[in-house]
Amino acid sequence: MKIRLKGAIGYSSPIYTDLDISLSLGKIYCVMGPNGSGKSTLLKTLSGTLPPLEGIVERDPNVKTIYLPSDPPSLPGMRGGDVALSVLAGDDRRLLYGNWVEGVEFERVESFLKELNFSLNLDRDFEEFSTGEKMKILLASSLASRAGILTLDEPMSHLDVKSRLSLYKIIRREKDRKLFVISLHEVTEASMICSEGIILDSKRAVGPIGIEEILREEVLSNVYGVKFKIISVEGRVVPIPISSSLA
């Protein structure tokens, strides 16, 4: 299972050109960079949600792909369980309306929800859940789905600390079943989940490269425009921002 992007990405004008990015199953890829650097645009292009401005995106046409935005959509009139079934069905509405979603798949949704510390009734209206609870429903459904490629846009941003740690554990466990591409807002999370990273700074895209090559003081300072200090916590590299300027 692989993705290859070759060309340019953007909307009316290119953000990055001459890209050649290849991703494969078994690694967890993180997309990093400041606000407005194009992280969401890259994820949408890799998932097929947004076409490249130039070039091609190569994916196995038989492998389903899910793009999960950072903010859950507003879905009035749908119950939490309806939303989960829609994600499981994906683009093939026959799975939903033909009742082809197998019970074992929905049991997997419930299992992932339990791991994400979610114990509420899915018969409630989706709009009654908090933003974090909505995200847990979408994440659990995506993980349980038949999709082989998950592009997750800042999936931890609405989760509490305990649920974030649970999600890290799930993704690490599932990385040989699904290809994960994840954009990160918090740099400190990178070493907890990433195998390799793609770093964006509005001028160029670098990667994928080993995450240890990105988590260096000089690299992070150049990309984010602030000073970083690298510390070690239980053998894990953790970048800490220590100044809002490079001076």
From TrEMBL:
Keywords: ATP-binding, Nucleotide-binding, Transport. Residues 1-228 form the ABC transporter domain. GO terms for molecular function: ATP binding; ATP hydrolysis activity. PROSITE patterns: ABC_TRANSPORTER_2. Pfam families: ABC_tran (PF00005). It comes from the Archaea. InterPro entries: AAA+_ATPase (IPR003593), ABC_transporter-like_ATP-bd (IPR003439), Metal_Ion_Import_ABC (IPR050153), P-loop_NTPase (IPR027417). PANTHER family: ABC-TYPE IRON(III)-SIDEROPHORE TRANSPORT SYSTEM, ATPASE COMPONENT, METAL TRANSPORT SYSTEM ATP-BINDING PROTEIN TM_0124-RELATED. This is ABC transporter ATP-binding protein. It comes from Fervidicoccus fontis.
